[in-house]
Task: structure prediction
Amino acid sequence: MKKGLVVESGFVFEEETSLTVSKTSLFFTGDGFTVYDSKGELVFRVDSYGPDIRDKDELVLMDPHGRCLLTVRRKRPSLHQRWEGFLGERSDGQKPIFSVRRSSIIGRSSVTVEVYGNTGEEYQIEGSFGQRCCTIFNAGKETVAEIKRKVDASTNVVLGKDVFSLCLKPGFDGAFAMGLVLVLDQINGDDYFANDGGAEVVPTSMDV
Result:
């Protein structure tokens, strides 16, 4: 598999890896997150900004020690929902390393991720983030990451949507993937507040 965008090499795993993502507040769509590995060690965190998160255009992904890894920012004005990702803590004039664009045509939605720079990569996100069932494909239609409902291993019970799994294929950067999760959560929140429902991203070129 072709190597994708690397935000932080320390979060690129040689083996398929499943991270547990937990929303730190259940009251407001788009609140903070904590992310743990299979050993229960903290991997990423995103601080909650409280009930006014809907007015926030910028989210910061941090490592367990509070170091800023990635900033995702809503691009305004924009015809479609568009977000941009920046390495570290964004500064004025800094160029983004990727963009996420959501477009809708007669109720059908798709999310495209474009990586800037020499790589010229593009990814498609298909499925329903609101249902915690999404797949991230590269340009060759290979699965690089999946978002799934979390099943409690001891009881075999499916947990609530506030806890879910982020499954990474070997070589796909977990920090980049988590940045995409932040954008999907914001898009889903926009739809929830606008339509009293969740966002569904339906396939554009293949069935899943």
The chain has one helix and twelve strands.
